[in-house]
């Protein structure tokens, strides 16, 4: 489906890669007159995006590629002593692959999960999310990509998703998307300005 949407949008479009948080978002069909394709894939990890999305993009040269994912890399069941170094390697590899098909890349931080919900801190490791966000910011700087702290506006003083921002702890509610979506679009607009 992503490939079919990209075929209709054409080259020089914006592609927003991500997991189910992106996949479920009602994104506009264009930003600043540039067509936008929602390339969210439910359950996606950074390594899956790095391996699958370049095949979907094919020979297209994108105006902007947004990478907004990583929460699935922070599942407690997958945590190891090497989680942070593996995440660093995976995001660096993904950026290298995706950069071949994009004039500009925008990386966003990972919003945390909401406490007291089924898919909250008992399912995802909040400390790993914070450490992964540090890696995302560092990777953006090392690779000349833009970075936007998408998590900041949605995070409470306990470094958790603010109450009411999710349906189940991880997937955003309408209230969550009312903060997430405009913040993402604003970051896209800034990246488009610097790409021209």
TrEMBL record:
GO terms assigned for molecular function: hydrolase activity, acting on ester bonds
Listed Pfam families: Lipase_GDSL_2 (PF13472)
Domain SGNH hydrolase-type esterase per the UniProt entry, residue ranges: 25-179
Protein name: SGNH hydrolase-type esterase domain-containing protein
SUPFAM superfamilies, alphabetized: SGNH hydrolase
């Amino acid at each position: 489906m992503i490939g079919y949407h990209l075929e209709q949008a054409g080259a020089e479009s914006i592609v927003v890669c991500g997991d189910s948080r992106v996949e479920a978002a009602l994104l506009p069909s264009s930003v600043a007159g540039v067509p936008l394709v929602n390339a969210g894939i439910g359950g996606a990890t950074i390594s899956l995006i790095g391996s699958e999305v370049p095949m979907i993009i094919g020979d297209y040269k994108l105006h902007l590629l947004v990478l907004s994912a990583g929460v699935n890399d922070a599942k407690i069941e997958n945590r190891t002593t090497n989680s942070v170094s593996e995440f660093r390697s995976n995001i660096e590899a993904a950026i290298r692959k995706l950069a071949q098909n994009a004039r500009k890349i925008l990386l966003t931080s990972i919003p945390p999960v909401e406490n007291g919900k089924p898919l909250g801190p008992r399912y995802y490791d909040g400390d790993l999310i914070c450490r992964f966000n540090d890696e995302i910011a560092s990777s953006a700087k090392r690779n000349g990509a833009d970075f936007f702290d998408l998590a900041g506006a949605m995070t409470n003083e306990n470094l958790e998703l603010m109450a009411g921002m999710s349906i189940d702890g991880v997937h955003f509610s309408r209230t969550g998307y009312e903060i997430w979506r405009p913040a993402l679009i604003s970051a896209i607009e800034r990246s488009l300005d610097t790409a021209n």
